[in-house]
Amino acid sequence: MFSLFLITPLKLMLLGLVAILGFTIFRYSWVAFSGQSDRGRFLRALALTISAVVLVIISNHMLLFWAAWTSVSLSLHRLILFYPERPRAQLAAHKKFLLARLSELLLGVALLLLHYHFQTSYISEVIAQMPFAGSHLDLKIAAVLLAVVALIKCAQLPIHGWLIQVVEAPTPVSALLHAGIVNLGGILLLFFAPVLAASSSACWLLIVWAGLSTVIAGLVSTTRISIKVKLAWSTSSQMGLMLVEIALGLYEMALLHLFAHSFYKAYSFLNSGSAVNNYLATQLSGEFKPKVRHWTLALVLAIAILALAQWQFTVTNSMAAAMLVLFALAALILPSVTRLDSATAVRLLITLVVACALLAFYTTAKHHLVVLMGLDAPLNHSADNLVAMFFVALFVFSMALQYWPHVRWVKRLFIWLNAGAYLDEWATRLTLKLWPSQSLLELQHAHLSLKTEAKQ
């Protein structure tokens, strides 16, 4: 007989992540709201949200899983509207509320289809029967619905606007949302990975939609000045990247990405108040801006390290993963080759040693996670090559925006990106037209104010 709750090695790792982030954000909130009369109300809503996330992770019954998933959104809604008098917070909460209800409806239909096909309400039994399920229309539809739910939860373009505007909420809410809640889309697909892998349509939907979101949102983030807004756009891009990794069957890479992104975003948001001091410290340190030749040298060194590691240890069989690791290594090496002085050789040697150590750690962790997670899927080489092209395009366009801003097509690209590709404006107008709220006038005022703040 199956249990309502199930603990697996994957779920244990996720519970550890939730525990660390939950404790850190709760402690930060306790101090940040000290002396305020609303501290108790905020901490209760925060604890309820974290508890709902834990329930999502450990649930093994479809109805319980769906109820917990819905509870996360409802409790988060209270946190987003903690300052209800702010029009932009109302706008974000309104759009988030509608999208959440849509995703819950689609998730419910997907779970009903799985229940109908396998005649069981237990998720573990569904996963156990998947290798013998064959190819059926109801399973393909369920996989596509799960993919759409993940895309909505991860705030992929053009339904990303609420994630950008939710910075109106208190800083701990932004940290919780960006470091944890948006990851639920990826966690959902990891839990139902065999169902997703059985549908090429669902995988291609994720690759194209999330891949384009990764590139566009990543480029838009480079045009933003506000730290929180830049981080919000970056989250949309990073979530798209995680979904692409899952669609390619690179589950262990997606899990490593999920952990790294969660810790980074939690730190970045909770430390965002020190951004000005960090910027001034960087300016006073006399840091040099890298030039194209520095990037070229960093890429050459990164290629050499990756080629040697691939020859000796087989880091990855995926071209997309190789490109991602290559650009990460180049970014790590870049500061060491930017400034040429008497300490350059020592600095570069230390950086190369650190790069090799990180690559060895990544390779070791990846191989162990493959065994620990127990998930495997054949690599689609056509999709893999397309994703690799997405990564190259993101790098090339980023370089063009940084080093050739006066070229005509780069100017046009910058204007388009600076306006957020105009996607959220269309989505906001459509949302308010189809489903206006009681505070419609305030929402419309907030929507108009977005144009004046687009350059932030």
From TrEMBL:
Part of an energy-coupled inorganic carbon pump. This is Probable inorganic carbon transporter subunit DabB. GO terms for molecular function: NADH dehydrogenase (ubiquinone) activity; NADH dehydrogenase activity. Keywords: Cell membrane, Membrane, Transmembrane, Transmembrane helix, Transport. GO terms for biological process: ATP synthesis coupled electron transport; electron transport coupled proton transport. One of its GO terms (cellular component) is endomembrane system. Pfam families: Proton_antipo_M. It comes from Celerinatantimonas diazotrophica. HAMAP family: DabB.
